[in-house]
Amino acid sequence: MFNTLLIANRGEIACRVIETARAMGLRCVAVHSDVDAGAKHVAMADMSVCIGGASPAESYLRGDAIIAAALATGAQAIHPGYGFLSENPEFVDAVDAAGLVFVGPGAAAIRAMGLKDAAKRLMAEAGVPVVPGYHGTEQDAGFLAEQAEGIGYPVLIKAVAGGGGKGMRLVERAADFAQGLASAQAEARGAFGNPAVLIEKFVTAPRHIEVQVFGDGTRAVHLFERDCSLQRRHQKVIEEAPAPGMTAPMRAAMGAAAVRAAEAIGYKGAGTVEFIVDGSEGLRPDGFWFMEMNTRLQVEHPVTEAITGVDLVEWQLRVASGEPLPCAQDDLTITGHAFEARLYAEDVPAGFLPATGRLSELAFPGDVRADSGVRAGDVISPHYDPMIAKLIVHGPTRDIALRKLARGLAGTRVAGTVTNLAFLGALARHGGFARGEVDTGLIGRDLDQLVGGAELPARRVAQAAIAAAGLWDGGPVQAGFTLWAPLQRTVLLERGDDALSAVIQAHGPGCIDVTVDDTRIRAQRDGTGWRIDGQPAPGLFVDGAQITIFEDGGQVFRIVDPLARAAAAGASGNLIEAPMPGRVVSVFAAAGQAVRAGDRLAVLEAMKMEHTLTAARDGVVAELLVTEGAQVEAGAALIRLEEEDPAP
What we know:
Helices cover 26% and strands 33% of the residues. The protein is built from 18 helices and 40 strands. Strands 29-28-27-26-25-24-32-31-30 form a nine-stranded antiparallel beta sheet, covered by helices on one side. β27 and β28 (529-532) form a beta hairpin. α4 (89-97) packs antiparallel against α5 and α12 packs antiparallel against α13. The longest helix is centred in the middle third of the chain and has 17 residues, at 248-264.
């Protein structure tokens, strides 16, 4: 086996690969952009090489720089992780030409599965069931509309070179086809440089079930299935293994089809065959169809590892070094049930907008596997995917594993940036999900319920007020109070758009009364910590003017300076501002143009996603403050509307 491995990636997956490689006695080389010089994966490696600037195009997508780093450091093999260059056949060819080992499939296998239309034709020839649809090369709009009519609505338009839900549109009636096609093609052209699409029948009660395969170039095995149906905008949120409701005949049929797919292209290494499944009448051996094959390690691979006891990265490294498959199909078994939840820095109430910020606090419960590429103190950068961690749990049954997931999420502490932690917790407690009633539309149907959040109890405002007064960690009881007056003061807080106030009356260092509205709360401190109204208080973290209470995904309060509040009261509401750092892709407005509430004004690209900015009210564009292609910071003014006429 090679003795030095270069990991051509960053973040969580780079850390994951380094952990197994180091356990196998390998020397590890990290590559990094200039803004990642202090990143966790760099600290874990034996040595590191800077390969360029902050953007992926300047660093992690520079195959030549990565290969040069491998040669300069004596690395004999390159592990691509997932994303970036992991499914780029030209990079694989270049690695081979440099005399290095690529830890993954050959370029031919990647090319065979790289375009969805060609892959589906190949799979049909191999006897793998495929969804009815048009996968040809003709791209005339009229011709595609005819194909959609023949397939029958609803249909799904998908980018041939797609991934991550980009270039995908659901069309439910013929009248909407032309607009859906144009939109999908435009997004595909921008994301992949290839506007070609295919048309497929849309399954009305779809489940996304995928099969983990592993090959040595000659034969392959499957490591059972994962259910990835909990999705939002085609992005996976929580994955599990095995799939709920799976039957032995269905598992055998899907596993055999996945192995046929892998062996048809001489697959080597870890891969995933994704199927769309009709869940309307339970899982049936004739109710699944091939979607695509991911020719790399998947983000959700830990749930497969949990139920099989297999370290997939170890298998990757062993097979890449020339070993045959480590075991036969009959040697693989399922033990228990596993879940994985993806923790992201994103503003859920604002429409799941990706977020940035410094992680002032980050901690996970001890009984949860947390795969993370960041630590407390690290910055979530606008240049890369905003994943904070993957939380993985395993239990003997699905019910037990799901309870462990809910408890693990509740015990996770994150401060310094907004996250989807509360949303994940709501999903873990969702009644239908608990019963195994999963399909890809679940989140969309119940979104309001899932993002609504619990009502804020007065005791949490009281806890935040005590912290804001500097009394939570044992500060002097007289801090912030007026000499020769009762130990009573008012604290002003904000939570989102809500202004809050609380009156604190201290009776001593371990006894405080807090009045919130008309409710009086007693806080007492003993040898075990604070108790509020007799109940143990959750932990909290104070970072400057921000207080995070670790309950319901993190309750965030801001300490208000009354003078600053007064100054902000007259701020203008006529500006359209950037909600996050990013690049202005398109501007649809012009000075003097009349717009209506909801009209598209601009598109901002950030965190590998596009976000449409719309007019909040009817009005007239007074001024454009930005041009297409500009890089802007969060809060930057982009477009200004004319002042509204005063009411008569």
